[in-house]
Amino acid sequence: MIPLTRIYSEMRRQPVIGLVTLFGTALAIFLIMIVVLMQNVNTIPFSPESNRGRFLHGRHLHMKTDNGECSGGMSYQTARTFFCDLEGAEAVSLHTDGSSQTTAGIPDAPQAEASKLETDADFWKVFDFTFIHGNPYSAADVESEAKVAVISESLAREVFGTPDAVGRTIMLDHFVPYTVRGVVKDVSPLATTAYATVWTPLSHDARNNTWYNYFGGITATVLAKDRSDFDRIRKCVTRNKAKFNTAVKAENEAWNMIDHGSPFPQEMLQYATWSNQPPDVGASESRRTRLAVYAILLLIPAINLSSMAQSRLRRRVSEMGVRRAFGCTRLRMVRDIVTENLIVTLAGGLIGLLLSLLAVWLFADMLFTGSLAKRGTVAVAPEMLLQWSTFGWALLFCFLLNLLSSGLPAWRAARMNPTDAIGGLQK
After folding, report:
1. Is the Cβ–Cβ distance between 247 and 78 less than 8 Å?
2. Cα(271)–Cα(282) distance, rounded to whole angstroms?
3. What are the beta bridge partners of residue 172?
4. How far apart are the first and last CA of the chain?
5. pLDDT tens across 34-46, in order?
6. Contact yes or no for 34/360 (Cβ under 8 A)
């Protein structure tokens, strides 16, 4: 194995070329890690959305009439009709479509800002929250519309001064009293479906917030037993939608539901921009664009690295001649150079990985939300940062390019006549 002292000596002898090679690799890894993380933040599994790979989402309803069309979220009754009795589903949760801003506090004290999400009891089966104290509310609580709540650790500390707030009363929605049933670990806003700071049972308003009898503010999240069950689940939903459409047309012939194939997996949510279009519109083009960006981010630094590697080898021809004159085999010389490049690539890769982790930790808000809010507003879970597959593929690419750019010239240099090599001549 090549001594690390030799690499250090070579770096000292050619510091500019050595540092450019090292940090060129670091730059390539840094850029690709940041860009991939920004692209995949909506699909990376992390608590409480650790089961994103088994999620199916139903959010929108699109209907046409004789006079035009209407689209939006589902009413509670519509969502129940679509997502009942699903074969292959482990659990199905109906909840409001995103959190709403409210206030939280105690009497005779300043009110804190809070984000509230109204859910059913199965919400706690679909998402894997970490309970610090207490438990989630039950199906009976939801059915009775009990004034109970689950709150985040940070909200508990802000309102009560301690995370142990189970059993205490918190004032929500303009001083409506709720009893705290549980306290959970803070949730990152990047958990776009489950995020809130307070969760309450579906209220009467949420259940009856509807227009044209079919639309409302409810969304459904289906947790499949396995991704192989997606097709079975979709068939069940399609069957339920067909029954729904038949009933609607029997009641009012002017209405006709347009089925865009929902529910959709997690990776398609980023394309679900409009409720009257399937979310995969433009998906293929977007993927091609991302691949082109990745290639550019890797190729430009990698080409520079290969040029530097060849330059380093040209400067070491005399050294190779001396080693050949003292009996070093060609295979050994090539192996040493390849090993040296591997070590330098690994070192640069680790530097790039550390830089990407630091950048995300410091500038999460700017990277993911476009804001320059105070650091820590957007919490980034470790499992989001450590994308080992991306890091591995990017590192392998840099190493292979370095191998081609250094290994072949090294073999050519090793075949030179030792006298010519020592004299710095090249055939």
Report:
1. no
2. 8
3. 104, 176
4. 29
5. 777 776 777 888 8
6. yes
CA distance 77 to 161: 40
360-366 own/partner pairs: CB under 8 Å, 24+ apart: 360/34, 360/37, 360/385, 361/385
pTM: 0.73
- Identify whether the C-beta of residue 320 lies closer than 8 Å to the C-beta of residue 333: yes
Beta strands in 232-367 (DSSP E): 256-257, 264-265
Q: Which amino acid is at 344?
A: V
Q: Where are the beta strands (DSSP E) in 66-213?
A: 68-73, 89-96, 100-105, 112-119, 131-134, 148-152, 169-172, 176-184, 198-201, 210-211
Cβ neighbours of residue 299 under 8 Å, at least 6 residues apart? none
* Residue 411 to residues 314, 336, 408, Cα–Cα distance (Å): 12, 11, 5
| Gap between the Cα atoms of 29 and 172, Å rounded | 46
Amino acid at 415: R
Sign, CA torsion 123/124/129/135:
positive
Is the separation of the CB atoms in 366 and 360 below 8 Å?
Answer: no
Q: 61 with 215: CB under 8 angstroms? A: yes
pLDDT at 414 over 90: no
